[in-house]
């Protein structure tokens, strides 16, 4: 990747977990980063970590399913920093449980963040990317919704799987809509990863939080996503990230 061109990354769900890890790693690689999530203090901490890497942070506190918030945040970001180089739809909610037993609010939350939220974020930033004729949209889906996945490990999680399959479909369909217009769309399907370790990538931290369960470290996932962003590499439409025991 060229390090001289101005680059801006947009990362949703960046108040912790993978979103924060990606935001900080992208800043390390020279991107200014626009981050969004609902928790002001945790998101502000991500913004500080981005700035500690010497890059600008654009912090948008709000709900990605709220068009008034998303459109105003995107306008501010594009006015101040130009079109995004990459937009990562990472915000997500996971509440395990069968459909019949699931709390309706939890079900609605999962479905709306993955569908309405992701579509709003793309819709808000796309005009600037189309005007520039380049950009990359990355959807963080889930191994549970990967092509050919029979079931989630906790295979009663119907609401989550439906939500993530809808997100994957957004990616597939956008790829058709955007064909020939310079914008890449990649669906990433990670299996379980160590989001609770908050940037501590050590094997010890991962083991302390997850025991011997096979999980990806945050670094493995962020590295895989960042490799996808290299415009000199062939386009990758779909990528499944599997975990080996650490
Ligand atoms: N961890 C895993 O094993 C795993 C495996 C496969 C896929 N994934 C997917 O990978 C992504 C990141 O996972 P993670 O484990 O890092 O998740 P996480 O720690 O639970 O973080 C989720 C992020 O999404 C944000 N968010 C949730 N609802 C939102 C809304 N309505 N508007 C704005 N932001 C919202 C949360 O922030 P606020 O609460 O502050 O809004 C938080 O920053 C998710 O999409 C998840 O489904 C995770």
Please, could you describe this protein's structure?
With 246 residues, the chain is an alpha/beta fold. It has a single domain (8-241), classed as Rossmann fold (3-Layer(aba) Sandwich). It is 44% helix and 15% strand. It is built from 7 helices and 7 strands, in the order βαβαβαβαβαβααβ. It has helices at 17-28, 40-52, 67-81, 104-132, 158-177, 203-210, 218-228, and strands at residues 8-12, 32-37, 57-61, 86-89, 135-140, 183-190, 238-241. It has a 7-stranded parallel β-sheet with strand order 3-2-1-4-5-6-7, sandwiched between helices. Helix 2 (40-52) links the parallel strand 2 (32-37) and strand 3 (57-61). Helix 1 crosses helix 7 (218-228). The longest helix has 29 residues, at 104-132. The model has no long low-confidence stretch (mean pLDDT 92). Residues 12-19, 36-39, 42, 63-65, 90-94, 113, 117, 140, 142-143, 190, 192-193, 195 line the site of NADP nicotinamide-adenine-dinucleotide phosphate (NAP).
Q: Could you tell me which ligands this complex binds, including any ions or cofactors?
A: NADP nicotinamide-adenine-dinucleotide phosphate
Question: What is the approximate shape?
Answer: globular
Question: Would you identify the regions where 5 or more consecutive residues have pLDDT less than 50?
Answer: none
State the fourth-level CATH superfamily.
NAD(P)-binding Rossmann-like Domain
Share of helix among residues? 40-55%
Average pLDDT for all residues: 92
Report the top-level CATH class: Alpha Beta
């Amino acid at each position: 990747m060229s390090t001289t061109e101005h680059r801006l990354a947009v990362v949703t769900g960046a108040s912790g977990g993978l979103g924060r890890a990606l935001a900080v790693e992208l800043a390390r690689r020279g991107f200014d980063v626009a981050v969004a999530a609902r928790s002001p203090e945790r998101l502000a901490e991500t913004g500080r970590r981005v700035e500690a890497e010497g890059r600008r942070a654009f912090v948008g506190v709000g709900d990605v399913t709220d068009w008034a918030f998303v459109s105003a945040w995107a306008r501010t970001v594009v006015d101040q920093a130009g079109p995004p180089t990459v937009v990562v739809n990472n915000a997500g909610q996971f509440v395990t449980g069968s459909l019949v037993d699931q709390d309706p609010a939890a079900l609605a939350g999962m479905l709306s963040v993955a569908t309405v939220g992701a579509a709003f974020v793309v819709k808000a930033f796309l005009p600037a990317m189309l005007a520039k004729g380049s950009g990359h949209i990355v959807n963080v889906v889930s191994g549970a919704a990967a092509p050919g996945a029979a079931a989630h490990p906790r295979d009663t999680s119907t609401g989550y799987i439906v939500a993530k399959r809808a997100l994957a479909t957004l990616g597939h369909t956008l790829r058709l809509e955007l064909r020939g217009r310079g914008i890449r769309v990649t669906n990433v399907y990670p299996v379980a990863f160590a989001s609770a370790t908050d940037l501590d990538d050590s094997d010890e931290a991962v083991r302390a939080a997850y025991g011997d369960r096979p999980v990806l470290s945050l670094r493995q996932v962020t590295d895989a996503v960042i490799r996808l962003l290299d415009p000199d590499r062939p386009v990758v439409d779909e990528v499944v990230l599997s975990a080996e025991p650490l």
